[in-house]
Amino acid sequence: MDEQMVLDQLIRMSLEIAKPELDAVILGEGNTSAKISDEAFFVKGSGKYLGRSAADTFVKVDLKGALAMLDGPDLTDNQIKDALFDLRADKTNPLKPSVETTFHGYLLSLPGINFVAHTHPTAVNMITCSVNGKEIVKSRIFPDEIVYCGIEPVWIDYVDPGLTLGRTIRQEVTKFQDKHGCNPKMIMMQNHGLIAIGKTAHECEAITAEAIKAARVLRGAMQFGGIKYFTEEQVNRIYTRPDEAYRQQQFK
Ligand SMILES: [Zn+2]
Predict the structure, then answer these.
(1) CATH class of segment(s) 3-250
(2) Domain ranges in the chain?
(3) Which residue from 33, 100, 111, 200 has the highest number of Cβ atoms inside 10 Å of its Cβ?
């Protein structure tokens, strides 16, 4: 895919996940990204509105440079700001790459991952901001949630946004890969929000929409006497059924 096509798909995905019915982002919340090559990716500029996404919402940045920040020393807030500006491919672009550029770079470096969508959905944050949040997402509750959002989410306890968050995500995603032998499809961050990780823009849209629906269903189920979770066997059965695998392929 050429650079313009990647940007066009990123814009379309960003507008899609910012639709009011999902209640996933308002104002300058959230950020999205797309891989151009092993050397570069687009990421949202700091403060830009996803709901008004256009070509000038995004900035092209150096992928290896973003990964080097995760491996490098701890930085002060000012040093991070300078380092983010340094990642720009075009130094005349006035946009500052999002403060979350490092986790986007890491996730886009995973095999088969080309798009990342990070949002703050109200329905999902009712869970991530609750005292029992991690426990509430201990298992899956309906088949489509498994098909689109994967076998389980990666849960991230609250840490400082930016470099610390990027490093923590890398550590927890690596644990997930060791356990399941594949990439996660979604990350839930305590007191923060959701990250959808996809091969395509459409996959990130589907993960985001389905994660929001599951969060709304969880909330309703609690009001009707409690949540009836799938057992581990039921989750594994759906995850490995050939007809479900076929459905998973349809949005790739
Ligand atoms: Zn955020």
Answers:
(1) alpha beta
(2) 3-250
(3) 33
